[in-house]
Amino acid sequence: MALSVPHPRPPVSRQRDAPAPGPWDPAAERCWYENGLGWAVASGPGVRLLTGLRFDVLELPAEAGFAALRHAGPKAPVALHGETMRLFVAAGSADELPGLLDWLEWGGIPLDLKGIGAGGLVDAPTPPGAVGRPGAAVWLRAPEPNCEVEATLPSLTLPSLTLPSPTPPSAPGPSPALCADGSGTDPHSGSAAGSDLVRLVDTAATQCHRVRLRRQSSQPLAFS
Protein backbone atom coordinates (compact mmCIF):
# COMPACT_ATOMS: atom_id res chain seq x y z
CA MET A 1 0.00 0.00 0.00
CA ALA A 2 1.38 3.34 -1.04
CA LEU A 3 1.96 5.83 1.70
CA SER A 4 1.53 9.53 1.16
CA VAL A 5 3.81 11.90 3.00
CA PRO A 6 1.96 14.98 4.27
CA HIS A 7 3.27 18.38 3.42
CA PRO A 8 5.25 20.00 6.25
CA ARG A 9 3.24 22.36 8.40
CA PRO A 10 4.04 26.02 7.92
CA PRO A 11 5.62 27.92 10.81
CA VAL A 12 3.23 29.30 13.40
CA SER A 13 3.74 32.84 12.11
CA ARG A 14 2.65 31.76 8.64
CA GLN A 15 -0.51 29.88 9.69
CA ARG A 16 -4.05 31.21 9.41
CA ASP A 17 -3.21 32.63 5.97
CA ALA A 18 -1.03 35.34 7.53
CA PRO A 19 0.96 37.06 4.78
CA ALA A 20 4.70 36.76 4.98
CA PRO A 21 6.45 40.03 5.83
CA GLY A 22 7.57 41.69 2.65
CA PRO A 23 10.29 44.23 1.90
CA TRP A 24 10.28 47.58 3.64
CA ASP A 25 7.29 49.60 2.51
CA PRO A 26 7.34 53.17 3.87
CA ALA A 27 3.76 53.77 2.70
CA ALA A 28 2.47 50.78 4.65
CA GLU A 29 4.54 51.78 7.66
CA ARG A 30 3.15 55.31 7.57
CA CYS A 31 -0.38 53.93 7.29
CA TRP A 32 0.16 51.68 10.32
CA TYR A 33 1.14 54.63 12.47
CA GLU A 34 -1.41 57.12 11.18
CA ASN A 35 -4.43 54.82 10.86
CA GLY A 36 -3.65 51.95 13.22
CA LEU A 37 -2.30 54.04 16.10
CA GLY A 38 -3.52 57.55 15.32
CA TRP A 39 -0.01 58.97 15.70
CA ALA A 40 1.23 62.04 13.86
CA VAL A 41 3.86 61.35 11.21
CA ALA A 42 6.07 64.04 9.70
CA SER A 43 5.88 64.69 5.99
CA GLY A 44 8.91 64.06 3.84
CA PRO A 45 11.15 61.09 3.08
CA GLY A 46 11.29 58.28 5.58
CA VAL A 47 8.83 57.77 8.41
CA ARG A 48 9.38 59.93 11.48
CA LEU A 49 7.09 60.40 14.46
CA LEU A 50 6.21 63.80 15.91
CA THR A 51 6.81 64.05 19.65
CA GLY A 52 5.08 66.39 22.08
CA LEU A 53 1.56 65.60 20.89
CA ARG A 54 0.58 62.24 22.34
CA PHE A 55 3.93 61.35 23.88
CA ASP A 56 7.48 62.48 24.53
CA VAL A 57 10.60 60.33 24.37
CA LEU A 58 13.48 59.80 26.77
CA GLU A 59 16.63 58.84 24.90
CA LEU A 60 19.56 57.11 26.60
CA PRO A 61 22.20 54.42 26.00
CA ALA A 62 20.62 51.01 25.60
CA GLU A 63 22.92 49.59 28.27
CA ALA A 64 21.45 52.01 30.79
CA GLY A 65 17.92 51.73 29.43
CA PHE A 66 17.55 48.02 30.04
CA ALA A 67 18.14 48.59 33.74
CA ALA A 68 15.45 51.29 33.83
CA LEU A 69 12.74 49.30 32.05
CA ARG A 70 11.17 48.05 35.27
CA HIS A 71 9.92 51.59 35.91
CA ALA A 72 8.59 52.16 32.39
CA GLY A 73 5.36 50.26 33.01
CA PRO A 74 4.40 46.91 31.48
CA LYS A 75 2.71 48.43 28.42
CA ALA A 76 4.69 51.62 27.80
CA PRO A 77 6.22 51.50 24.31
CA VAL A 78 10.00 51.06 24.17
CA ALA A 79 12.15 51.21 21.03
CA LEU A 80 15.76 50.38 20.25
CA HIS A 81 17.83 52.10 17.56
CA GLY A 82 21.34 50.74 17.42
CA GLU A 83 22.88 51.35 20.84
CA THR A 84 20.21 53.90 21.79
CA MET A 85 17.00 53.15 23.66
CA ARG A 86 13.90 55.34 23.47
CA LEU A 87 11.40 55.24 26.30
CA PHE A 88 7.98 56.67 25.44
CA VAL A 89 6.63 58.86 28.22
CA ALA A 90 3.74 61.28 28.72
CA ALA A 91 3.65 64.42 26.60
CA GLY A 92 5.30 67.31 28.43
CA SER A 93 7.81 65.10 30.23
CA ALA A 94 10.72 66.42 28.16
CA ASP A 95 10.09 69.94 29.46
CA GLU A 96 10.01 68.62 33.02
CA LEU A 97 13.24 66.64 32.66
CA PRO A 98 15.82 69.36 33.52
CA GLY A 99 13.97 70.47 36.65
CA LEU A 100 13.32 66.89 37.64
CA LEU A 101 17.01 66.02 37.34
CA ASP A 102 17.88 69.03 39.49
CA TRP A 103 15.33 67.99 42.11
CA LEU A 104 16.74 64.45 42.09
CA GLU A 105 20.22 65.92 42.64
CA TRP A 106 21.49 65.04 39.17
CA GLY A 107 21.76 68.64 37.99
CA GLY A 108 25.16 69.58 36.55
CA ILE A 109 26.26 65.94 36.19
CA PRO A 110 26.98 64.88 32.59
CA LEU A 111 24.42 62.29 31.57
CA ASP A 112 23.66 60.74 28.20
CA LEU A 113 19.97 61.26 28.92
CA LYS A 114 17.82 63.67 26.98
CA GLY A 115 14.15 64.34 26.43
CA ILE A 116 12.56 64.86 23.02
CA GLY A 117 9.31 66.77 23.28
CA ALA A 118 7.26 69.39 21.42
CA GLY A 119 8.53 69.97 17.90
CA GLY A 120 10.83 66.93 17.99
CA LEU A 121 11.08 63.95 15.69
CA VAL A 122 12.16 60.34 16.14
CA ASP A 123 12.58 57.64 13.53
CA ALA A 124 9.57 55.35 13.45
CA PRO A 125 10.44 51.80 14.53
CA THR A 126 9.54 49.06 12.11
CA PRO A 127 5.98 47.83 12.81
CA PRO A 128 5.73 44.36 14.34
CA GLY A 129 5.91 41.59 11.76
CA ALA A 130 7.26 43.83 9.00
CA VAL A 131 10.71 43.83 7.46
CA GLY A 132 12.47 47.11 8.09
CA ARG A 133 15.27 48.79 6.24
CA PRO A 134 18.81 47.97 7.44
CA GLY A 135 19.69 49.83 10.60
CA ALA A 136 16.10 50.88 11.33
CA ALA A 137 14.74 51.32 14.82
CA VAL A 138 12.82 48.34 16.19
CA TRP A 139 10.22 47.87 18.88
CA LEU A 140 11.22 46.16 22.10
CA ARG A 141 7.69 46.75 23.36
CA ALA A 142 5.33 47.84 20.61
CA PRO A 143 2.19 49.94 21.15
CA GLU A 144 -1.14 48.23 20.71
CA PRO A 145 -3.32 49.39 17.80
CA ASN A 146 -6.75 50.78 18.69
CA CYS A 147 -5.60 51.53 22.25
CA GLU A 148 -5.01 54.89 23.87
CA VAL A 149 -1.26 55.10 24.33
CA GLU A 150 -1.53 57.89 26.91
CA ALA A 151 -2.84 55.51 29.56
CA THR A 152 0.30 53.35 29.31
CA LEU A 153 2.91 56.13 29.56
CA PRO A 154 4.96 57.04 32.64
CA SER A 155 3.80 60.47 33.79
CA LEU A 156 4.62 63.06 36.39
CA THR A 157 2.23 63.05 39.33
CA LEU A 158 2.55 66.52 40.80
CA PRO A 159 1.50 65.57 44.34
CA SER A 160 4.53 63.27 44.48
CA LEU A 161 6.78 66.32 44.22
CA THR A 162 4.99 68.31 46.90
CA LEU A 163 6.70 68.39 50.26
CA PRO A 164 4.47 66.61 52.78
CA SER A 165 2.99 68.48 55.71
CA PRO A 166 4.53 67.70 59.09
CA THR A 167 2.86 64.76 60.79
CA PRO A 168 1.30 65.70 64.14
CA PRO A 169 2.93 63.83 67.05
CA SER A 170 -0.37 62.15 67.91
CA ALA A 171 -0.98 60.95 64.35
CA PRO A 172 0.05 57.35 63.69
CA GLY A 173 2.12 56.34 60.69
CA PRO A 174 5.74 56.46 59.53
CA SER A 175 7.73 59.67 59.62
CA PRO A 176 8.55 61.26 56.26
CA ALA A 177 11.98 60.56 54.84
CA LEU A 178 14.19 63.61 55.22
CA CYS A 179 17.06 64.88 53.12
CA ALA A 180 20.60 64.57 54.42
CA ASP A 181 20.39 68.10 55.84
CA GLY A 182 17.23 67.20 57.77
CA SER A 183 14.87 69.35 55.69
CA GLY A 184 12.17 68.49 53.20
CA THR A 185 11.78 65.06 51.68
CA ASP A 186 14.54 62.94 50.26
CA PRO A 187 13.71 62.83 46.51
CA HIS A 188 15.07 59.29 46.26
CA SER A 189 12.79 57.95 48.99
CA GLY A 190 9.71 55.89 48.23
CA SER A 191 7.39 58.61 49.54
CA ALA A 192 8.82 61.22 47.19
CA ALA A 193 9.37 59.08 44.11
CA GLY A 194 5.68 58.34 43.82
CA SER A 195 5.15 58.77 40.10
CA ASP A 196 6.25 56.46 37.34
CA LEU A 197 8.20 59.26 35.68
CA VAL A 198 10.13 60.20 38.83
CA ARG A 199 11.19 56.61 39.40
CA LEU A 200 12.03 56.14 35.74
CA VAL A 201 14.14 59.29 35.49
CA ASP A 202 15.97 58.60 38.75
CA THR A 203 16.83 55.06 37.68
CA ALA A 204 17.74 56.13 34.15
CA ALA A 205 20.05 58.88 35.45
CA THR A 206 21.73 56.47 37.86
CA GLN A 207 22.35 53.90 35.14
CA CYS A 208 23.52 56.53 32.63
CA HIS A 209 26.04 57.77 35.21
CA ARG A 210 27.29 54.24 35.83
CA VAL A 211 27.68 53.58 32.11
CA ARG A 212 29.59 56.84 31.62
CA LEU A 213 31.96 56.08 34.51
CA ARG A 214 32.52 52.53 33.28
CA ARG A 215 33.32 53.72 29.77
CA GLN A 216 35.70 56.37 31.08
CA SER A 217 37.52 53.87 33.26
CA SER A 218 37.96 51.50 30.32
CA GLN A 219 39.67 54.12 28.13
CA PRO A 220 43.46 53.81 27.91
CA LEU A 221 45.47 56.43 29.75
CA ALA A 222 47.07 59.11 27.60
CA PHE A 223 50.77 59.71 28.25
CA SER A 224 52.46 62.87 27.03
Share of helix, binned: 10-25%
> Which percent band covers the strand fraction?
5-15%
Q: Over the alpha carbons, how many angstroms does the gyration radius reach?
A: 23 Å
Number of helices: 4
Total domain modules:
1
Provide structural commentary:
The protein has 224 residues and is α+β, with helices and mostly antiparallel strands. The chain has one domain. It is built from 4 helices and 7 strands; from the N terminus they run αββαββαβββα. The strands form 2 sheets. It has a 5-stranded antiparallel beta sheet. The chain has a two-stranded antiparallel ribbon with strand order 1-6. A hairpin with a 2-residue loop joins β3 and β4. The termini are far apart. The N terminus is likely disordered.
